[in-house]
Amino acid sequence: MTESILSLHKLFFSPPRPEPLKVSSIVSKNCVLGGTFDKFHFGHQAFINSAFNIAEKVHVCIMSDEGVRLWGKKKYSDMVDPYNKRLATVKDFLTEYGLLNHAVVCKIDDPYSYATKRSEALYLDSILVSTEDIILKRTLMLNNARRSKGLKPLHIFRMPLIIDKDGVPISATRIRAGEKIYFPSIPTFRISKELIPLIREPKGELVNSPKELPEPEGPVIAIGDIVVQNLVKYGYPISIAIIDKRSRRESIEDYYLYFSANNGITDIPPYIPVKNPRGHISNDTWTKLILALFQSSPVVVRVYGEEDLLGFPATILAPNKTLVIFGQPPPWDKLVYFFVDDSKRAEAYNLLMRMQKIKE
Fold this sequence. Notes:
Layout: H1 2-6, E1 22-25, E2 28-35, H2 42-52, E3 55-63, H3 65-71, H4 83-96, E4 103-108, H5 113-116, E5 126-130, H6 133-148, E6 155-159, H7 172-176, E7 188-190, H8 196-200, E8 205-207, E9 220-223, H9 225-234, E10 240-243, E11 246-247, E12 250-251, E13 255-258, E14 260-262, E15 265-267, E16 271-276, E17 280-281, H10 283-294, E18 299-305, H11 311-317, E19 323-328, E20 334-339, H12 342-352, E21 356-358
Parallel strand pairs: 2-3, 2-5, 3-4, 5-6, 6-15, 9-10, 9-19, 10-18, 16-18
Antiparallel strand pairs: 1-13, 7-17, 7-21, 8-20, 11-12, 14-15, 19-20
Helix pairs in contact: 11-12
């Protein structure tokens, strides 16, 4: 396992480029999204999860079997799983990440009626779609239909498609065709009490504010909600933001990150969901950080649980010259940063190997 983990950083030839992001408070009450959600994959996870990070309630609309027959135009659409199976998979995901209580899960027969004719259409105020041009055209048509019925147009949130290590979007079509999408599997680790003092020691340079940070030489990984918000407000570029919507284990005011907003359209980064219990570095964490590093533009890793230990997989997985930034708790109460290199990677790996490995 030593060689496999320590060599994974060589996979990331084109990790997310650092870009300045913007921050906004949550204003959407009811966001709608739709899809077939066949062969439920990481792209589906990020798509649905992103909606829960821009709105208070999400209407997850799943195409019926009849709708698939009428509207299915992609290859192998005759191999789509039955509606009940797709519904169960979506509900399992929402339950696993604690999102079901904030969701309305519904069946649709076409892409338009739920947001234009159903009683729920009155309450919807936003929609999440992908950044494909054809999808935007369809969404603008939906808004025109709403206007014709006296309904307010939906604010359009757009999210990039999730890609694999080769830069190709992960899709149900590829999976139905029998294609295997590569992801290494790394076990879960749990911290032991004797390691806590070592882990709490500063691992890099300490600074008081983002203005004291160096210029990035490669990707930038920022860990912690307060750190991320401060970097965003200062205009410092970020490649991967790792957040858990908590600060020192207390919930913080809800917010979301975005690229740009113009004429009723807001472009947001994908929010990749990670389930990571306190004191652990879960298998899900390793997989989703690898997924984040495959992307070409900034992403948010949204942790359900705790992100305190995620500097370890970030350091081990990230390519050399990646700048890792996180908050150093009291008594320092500062920002700490370092550039990833072979020495930093080995240091993080050696501490990881002293943690308890948990069999899945």
